[in-house]
Write a structure and sequence with these properties.
The longest helix has 15 residues. The chain is globular. The chain contains three helices and 13 strands. The strands form five sheets. The protein has a four-stranded mixed β-sheet, with helices on one face. Strands 4-6-5 form a three-stranded antiparallel β-sheet.
Length: about 180
């Protein structure tokens, strides 16, 4: 989960996004209860365009990985981690980056993710980002306005964001 703070932004296909806060999100291994804020009424449905899986003309896509994710992808797909994971310098939680071929994720075949069931957290979150909020809780914000899935499909509800948060919390508890 990102430690930096920032203003929430995004769209729901009809203008600005309102935000809702819920209690009961665990923080720090379940020691304290923190608020989880998420966009309300935002519609999103993946269009399987794979725009988020590689570089575009306007940005370089960096797919960061936790050590636990590297192990999961390697075990699930029976491939050595060195074939897809590059070590990152520093002491951040995301200690690896995904290799790319021609600017696209090494596991992308056309527009299909070949490791979808074991895909990294950053891919599960897209087009959202989870940040620490100033009030000590967490907030999901929209990261990309160029995602064609934003504004499509049914509105995402509290359950969607709580499930994403729980998955992230589980991965970070393994650090």
């Amino acid at each position: 989960m990102k430690g930096d703070k920032g203003e929430a932004g995004g769209r729901n296909g009809a203008g600005s996004v309102s935000r809702r806060r819920v209690s009961g999100a665990r923080r720090g291994g379940g020691k304290a209860s923190a608020a989880l804020t998420y966009p309300v009424g935002l519609r999103f449905e993946c269009q399987r365009c794979s725009r988020c899986c590689g570089d575009t003309k306007t940005r370089e896509r960096r797919i960061v990985l936790l050590e636990a994710e590297v192990g999961l992808i390697a075990a699930t797909n029976r491939v050595p981690s060195a074939t897809f994971a590059l070590p990152n310098a520093g002491t951040q939680a995301y200690t690896f980056s995904m290799r790319k071929v021609d600017g696209r994720c090494i596991f992308l075949n056309g527009t299909e993710c070949t490791v979808y069931e074991a895909r990294p957290l950053v891919c599960r979150f897209y087009p959202f980002e989870l940040r620490c909020s100033e009030n000590g809780g967490y907030e999901f914000i929209g990261t990309e306005d160029d995602c064609p899935g934003i504004g499509r499909g049914k509105p995402l509800g509290e359950g969607f964001f709580k499930e994403l948060f729980a998955y992230a919390e589980d991965l970070f508890s393994r650090l």
